[in-house]
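Recall that a protein's primary structure is simply its ordered list of amino acids. Everything else, from secondary elements to tertiary packing, is in principle encoded there. The following example makes that idea concrete.
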Amino acid sequence: MSKKNYLSTIGQSSPVSASQAIAKGLAPDGGLFVPEFIDNISFDLERLKDLSYPDLAKAILGDFLDFTEEELDEAVDGAYRSGKFDTQNLVAVTDAGDHSILELHHGPTAAFKDMALTILPYLVTRASKKSGEANEIVILTATSGDTGKAALEGFKDVPGTRIIVFYPKDGVSDVQERQMLSTGGDNTDVIGIFGNFDDTQTGVKHIFSDKAFNEALDEKGYTLSSANSINIGRLLPQIVYYYYTYFDLLRNGKIKEGERVNFCVPTGNFGDILAGYYAKKTGLPVGKLICASNQNKVLTDFFESGDYDKNRAFLKSVSPSMDILISSNLERLLYDKLRDPDQVASLMKGLKTEGAYRVDPSLFPEFFAGYASEEDTLSTIKRTFEEEGLLIDPHTAVAEKVYRDYRDATGDDTYTVVLSTASPYKFSGAVYEALFGEAPGEDPFELQEKLSERTGTKIPFSLRDLRSKPVLHHKTAEPDAMEETVRVILS
């Protein structure tokens, strides 16, 4: 057993190595894997500050994984040195007046998920070999819009794997849907679910925890794993861009060494901001982690009151990747704060049976939470373009609004970075309407062209030819038929 053990958040499964945790995706008891040794990691900022993004990724991931140097090289080179991103540094830290915006959407699918999902296939396939897995790996994923395409692109035609993606049929943008449905590859399946993201995520978790179903798959030579952020191998690479951003601010004189930086993160499933929390725990000088929600403000209410309650109306928004009422990765934060798997198990049981649980809100001093209404989101897109000359998507706009609310409410002048998680061209209808006050009502790809013409900005390379790509996937299902759908696909 590796000294780098990973534990289940609900404590009813044995500790496993990093490779086993990545290969499994979800713990056998239904919990999420967390690094037992997280409190023992403290990165030397002086040693890391001048590294390129790929070298920084290798240095940070090396402390979390049981991979050899050669295995890490293979993964990092395949993901970050193979020309998949349209910027030299993979990410861009852009000045926005009194703060910066971290652009994480320069990868092959124009969303922040690329930062982890370009490397995850290398981690999963290598982890499977290291943990002695002989079966074909089936990547089972629920998506609120961006994870699906990024995972499909990453695992497409990867030997020894299949990938099945479920998405809410009417809960993603037209561009997001076309991205997924036009994905080729002999090992890809995409299924539209007649429900919301929480339905798809709950269905996937049920499949993972169905012991009899998994045993039947094993007999047929299949083992399930995940590309969602419930897989620790998806979460860990996201820590890297927090460190990289801090060092970029240092190089450009925005901050001084040792100075704290706040990060404002638009989040639904809580994975992106949890990576920032892990960065803080491992030595990065992070001040506040500002959790930005849209009108589905279950996380805002939680951090303000300690009450997590998903018993509320599910609201569709112009920021659909955040239309989530069950934030899976919050379970990992609860484990880190409580260090009591029995208590975490009790809270998760309450969420499943009653749709709610309560904890002491004073447990989370590192966090501030706020939300943006639909009107706030659209007006922030317009204000940011007119005042800063920056074109942002609705999710980034949510974070921009919440950042300003935080600053006004607290007077905190700590330098802040707002995470920009997707290209505005993935949500061209909402962005166009916000800027020009016209109802979209047009083909989304025509709107991309109009948006480009009227703003003087470029359509990302990964979206330019999307209109002409044929739809290759046509499957749909009800939420309660997801397990049967997987059975049929794999038969």
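The first strand starts at residue 6 and ends at 8. The chain has a mean pLDDT of 95.
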